[in-house]
What does this fold into?
Amino acid sequence: MNRKKLVVTIVGCGSTRTPALVGSLINYKENFPLKKLIFFDIDKKRIEAQEDYIRLAMEKHCPDVELLFTDNEDEAYIGTEYVFCQMRAGNFHMRGHDEKIPLKYDLIGQETCGPGGFAYGMRSIKPMIHMVKKIREYAPNAWILNYTNPAAIVAVALDKVFPEDKRILNICDQPYSMIKSFAKLLDVDQYDIEPRYFGLNHFGWFTELRHVPTGEDLLPKLKKYLLEHDFKPYNAEQRAASWLKTYKNVNKMMSFFPEYLPNTYLQYYFFPEEIAKNSDPNYTRADEAKNGREKQVLELCKKAKDQNSFEGLELLVGAVHGNMMVEVAESIAYDLNKVYIVMVKNDNIISNIPQDAMVEVAGTLGKDGAKGYEFGQVGTFYKGLIEGQYAYEKLTVEACLESNYQKALEALTLNRSIVNPVKAKAVLDDMMQANKDYWWLS
Ligand code: NAD
Ligand code: G6P
Ligand code: MN
It folds into this structure.
């Protein structure tokens, strides 16, 4: 393969997902060749914690690629062609608040859904807008591939502020991860499954799983399997307890609504009381991830730093997040038009819900970005759910951009995981105090 070498910037490189993303870039070096890799984070300490591991891995596997580690945002974007964005405003410290504060009010504690997702959205929007403006100063044609959560809200905000910018793509790895899991259960190659899907980010349904070599829709077979077996992620042995429960709730959702296969995140909207009741307010996913992934990755990075060589060290690879980020960029860069589940402006893809919603559907990725496959109408049940959720997303973005307390209260009341305005107000006031360094409403 003789492909043009590219310049890539990773924003929020202090994320402990970065070493595995670098492993994916290494594994895909023929398909997605690099000229220069720029690592940017606002927190110098977080860069330094992983810098040696990354540098040594790259020196071993891709010695010709120029590397730059920087906390200077001007430097980060000069000449860049692809920006992979994965920042978390407030880091794990604030993720802890997102997940724990709602539990005080018997509401779900989740980083992207319910009050936690709201608070995190309010923190993400402005830094993301700032980032896009900065990138456009230095790299007007660069592709911005955004994974920063809550991606649903970030997508609506960026579309509102930069409606003409056609080189911003918001995308989520959960559908990809679910397809990988379906493939394992069905004993087929994940890349042979072409899905159809509709909804909003972290709020959607699979309607078809076409097996490309045979033309068969595998969804009926999978649904039958799930009547008798728990749904398990492809890497169940490595997953923490909370994720296994989450996957099992797909079976439960389907026992009520068997028509389509729901995204795991819908559990928070169908079973909020039960999930809140079964959560430990002193140990949420933030703690689990900190004591799991973060600890393991930072230990490995420290080892690399201490021995100053890659000898005997494992090359981490992002089987979902990392691989998907690189495949998505590859499909755009080389106009491959591969099918992914993408976020795009509705514009009649789903004909009977708001046209300005950022919907999540199956679509192709090529040189002009994402093109969603037309879906047609969704049934009344799904239409009702999606419209409520989209109204919540839209009001959240408006509340943030206008610093409008009333809109925030309306948004939270519309959220199916909350509903009660008394609780919505209580959790909003508490969240606002905890987030006062990031946002404030009046
Ligand atoms: P993390 O908290 O470990 O790291 C985030 C990093 O972002 C930190 O090093 C922090 O210093 C940095 N940061 C914060 N504000 C920044 C800014 N303004 N500019 C540059 N860097 C900044 O995060 P994580 O848990 O590994 O997740 C990273 C992000 O990716 C989160 O937003 C997470 O929700 C998201 N994510 C999304 C998907 C998806 O499907 N869309 C999948 C995985 C992770
Ligand atoms: C999935 C979702 C992401 C989310 C992540 C959380 O990949 O699609 O949006 O950020 O899970 O994973 P974690 O291990 O940090 O809880
Ligand atoms: Mn996601």
Observations:
- The longest strand covers residues 203-211.
